[in-house]
What we know:
The structure is a homodimer of 128-residue chains. Chain A has helices at residues 3-13, 21-31, 37-49, 91-99, 115-127; strands spanning 19-20, 54-56, 64-66, 73-77, 83-86, 105-112. With 128 residues, chain A is α+β, with helices and mostly antiparallel strands. Chain A folds into 2 domains: 1-69, Arc Repressor Mutant, subunit A (Orthogonal Bundle), CATH 1.10.10; 70-128, Dna Ligase, domain 1. In chain A, strands 1-3-2 form a 3-stranded antiparallel sheet. In chain A, strands 5-4-6 form a 3-stranded mixed sheet, with no helix packed on it. In chain A, α1 packs across α2 (21-31), α1 packs across α3 (37-49) and α2 (21-31) packs across α3. The first copy, chain A, is flat and about 45 Å long. Chain A binds chain B through residues 56-58, 63, 73, 75, 78, 86-88, 94-95, 98-99, 101-115, and chain B through 56-58, 63, 73, 75, 78, 86-88, 94-95, 98-99, 101-115. Chain A binds a DNA duplex (30 and 30 nucleotides) through α3.
Amino acid sequence: MTKQRAVILEVIRSDMCHHTADEIFTLAKERLPGISRATVYNNLKALESAQLIRRITGDSLSDRYDNSYVPHGHMICEECGQVKDFNLSNFDKQLSDAIGSEFNSYELKVRYVCDVCKQNECAKTAGE
Amino acid sequence: MTKQRAVILEVIRSDMCHHTADEIFTLAKERLPGISRATVYNNLKALESAQLIRRITGDSLSDRYDNSYVPHGHMICEECGQVKDFNLSNFDKQLSDAIGSEFNSYELKVRYVCDVCKQNECAKTAGE
DNA sequence: TAATTTTTTAGAATTATTCTAATTTTTTCA
DNA sequence: TGAAAAAATTAGAATAATTCTAAAAAATTA
């Protein structure tokens, strides 16, 4: 665990946001000005192999990183892009039944419009 | 519906594979040698907006396209990369309950090892 | 401490995708 | 039908995320 790796992990754990590699690079740079982009990418990979974080793909152009390795759902607001976590009870069992096999992990993303944006939408529509 | 768009849609519908944009470009080129990459990308977007196909993100570096717009699960073998479809019954209800809101779509990917690869793995292990 | 291994760094290279501007095709409707 | 307008296509340049490379630095081992 080098100091670069420690800082990267701290950045990811410091809030509930699901940051992109580039955001993590920027945040890590505040504490370790000399850090290089390649180091961030290398360590994100290493941390995922070590099951300390989880990569979540496909929300935007760039991948994001979750501070928990345990699979769970992500709900993504289509208006503001905010990502929240959620859980389904007994989902592992349900999933292995459905695919007829054990599995290693899953990724579940739901696209919706969050309450705040829903209100704004109504406001916008009403104003027209 | 231009002839380029028709060919792209045919390519996607011609088999059960979930092709990448680049594969679709190559396959479309066989039938329409002058077709351009930009046309493929433009039309994949247009076809998705028209709800005729669905983009699936994050399986590999490049996005893939599904010949059905209706959300369903994808099970991805971690060894050979093959993608299969699967369904969960009553999943829509379960999902909206879990997130406490209606949603627009979801994406569910399960990583596992398919039967064929599982056997090969055993064979490999046994041979060592 | 010396030797070896691992990590980091800066920047080049690669890959997927988007953008641009010119051209072609399609559509509209007089 | 045919001129005008709108939409789609093309080739290639531009962009953005990520990976690669080779040299330097740091950490580990003996």
